[in-house]
């Protein structure tokens, strides 16, 4: 009996499941922990996404800068609008980066994809950001007043009195609160825009992701600061490349930590 007619012969067909496509975004039940050196990997893997679409990236960044500048011209309301719409613009750009990772070209209208596809949850995230930052200011202000009440009673408050209250304890409280807030929102826009995670759940998952990856995130922040400084040197023109790179690397870091 030849091998071709042997009914007991193992099948020759390749039954190995195909690899997940680049655009696959199946969310892990819990964020994974990665090595500190992953920060370099995030930047190196994201650079081709920027390089292959550099012209469109520069246009998106220029328009985003103009929008932020115009909103900044309106006192108070401009700041509110910036906080509300920030996640919407960022979410749209991240949706564009996902398309680039899947082999598609980046389009200028990806800047506004968040308005078309995820407006309600991303606006909700922006509102929550605004509320938490307001609460952050209230708590910090309350701590400041409480720590200096004895010194300020019975006399007019001068700028020197206020500056004298900026002691080490107050600065430490502010830094701790700021880190806590950053951890809540670091991955929240990615979670909402790319995986439809509910807003409040996205804060919890973002916090867990940061808590499990302190070293790579700190290393990444150091690299980001260095890139921003270098990008700002040539009359800020380098930021037209650095900012897109940061968007793309935030997408890559999200995939490495949260996606199967």
From TrEMBL:
InterPro entries: BPSS1780-like. Keywords: Membrane, Transmembrane, Transmembrane helix. The keyword rRNA-binding does not apply. The chain crosses the membrane at residues 54-74, 80-101, 122-145, 165-187, 217-247. This is BPSS1780 family membrane protein. Coiled coil: none annotated.
